[in-house]
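Ticket #4471: complex job returned nothing on first submit. Input attached below:
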Amino acid sequence: MRDESAYSQMAAELLAWYDRHARVLPWRVPPDGGKADPYRVWLSEVMLQQTTVAAVKEYFHRFTTRWPNVEALAAADDADVMAEWAGLGYYARARNLLKCARAVAAQGGFPKTRAKLQELPGIGPYTSAAIAAIAFDRPETVLDGNVERVMARIFDDHTPLPAAKPVLTDYAARLTPVQRPGDYAQAVMDLGATICTPRNPACGICPWRGPCAARASGTAPSLPRKTPKAAKPIRFGIAYIGRRSDGAWLLERRPPKGLLGGTLGWPGTVWAESGLVETPPLPANWRALEEEVRHTFTHFHLRLSLRVALLPIDAPGHFVPDAQFNPRDLPTLMRKAHALAASELGA
DNA sequence: CATTCGTGGTT
DNA sequence: TAACCAAGAAT
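Support reply: We reran it on our side without changes. The output follows.
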C-alpha cells in the first residue's frame, strides 16, 4: 500500500490542507506568494531552534527592524546582538548567528545547497534542510521534533528516540515531494504543531487520518517513545549586585563559552551542588537578601542567593552607567536577580 | 552516542 | 507541581 504514488498522494493532501490552514507568521511567505528572503528564513529558523513560535515573534521583529539584512547584522557589535538576544535562551545561537552573518556577508550571500549551508556556524541538519527547502526551493527533508512525532505515528514506529532518528529521517524523506518542498516542510511542522500534538492529537480532523498506522492501532498519543531523561540536581550559588554612588551597576561579561556564555551578568560564585563559599568581586559591606532566585536550566535547578552593596565612586570593576543600563539586556536569570535587588539599591 | 546549552507555556 | 515540551547544534 505504501508505494510511491501513495506517498505522493499523501504529500498532495497535506499541501492542500496547508493551503487552507497555514498559520500567518511574520517570516512566512504566503503559499505561492512572493519569494522567500533567505535572511529572514535563516534568522527565524535559528530563533525557532528549541523555541516556541510565540517567544520568537517579538525577537524576530526587533532583529529585522534593527538589522534588515545580513550585511547590517554582520556589521553589528557583539554586545548589541547579545543584548537583543537576551531572554531568548541558548546563547550559543546568538554567538553563532553573528559569526554566520559575517561569513555570509563576506561570501556575498547565502549558499543555496544544504551541504554548503551546513558548513556555516549554528546551521545543523535541521536548519540547513529548512533553509534549502523554504528559501531556495530545494527538495530537502526537514526533521524536527514535529516531524519526528508525525512520522513515528504515521508509521507506528515504537523505536525510542534518539535511536529512532535515522529511521524517522528515512520515513520523512520518502514522503517529501519534489513540488513545493518549502511549503511541504512547513506543512508537516504545522501539522505537528496544531493537530498531531504531543498529548491529545486531533486525529479526527487530521488530513493524514486515513493512512496513519498509529491512529489505527490507538497508539498515537504514546508516540514517539523517548528514552527517559536524568533527574535535575539542585545547584547553589551567590550573586553580588553592586551599585556605585552615582547609580552605575557592577556587571561582567561572562566567558564566551559555556552556560550563558557571552552574556552580561552579575559577578558571583561558581554554581555547584555543594561547597559554596563567599567570593565577593570586591571588599564591601555586602548584605544578604532573604529571598533567593530560583531558576531552572536544561539540566539543573539553580538557587541563587543574592548580596547587595552600595559602592564608593572609585570602586574598581566594570560599571555600567544607570542611563545605559537596561535589565532587558540581561538573560532571564540575571533579570530575576535585578528585580529582587533593585529596591534594596534605590532603583 | 551522551552531554551541554535557556526559557516559558502546558499538562 | 513537577515533568514535559518547543521549527536543534556543538562537542
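DSSP finds 13 helices and eight strands in chain A. Closing as resolved unless it happens again.
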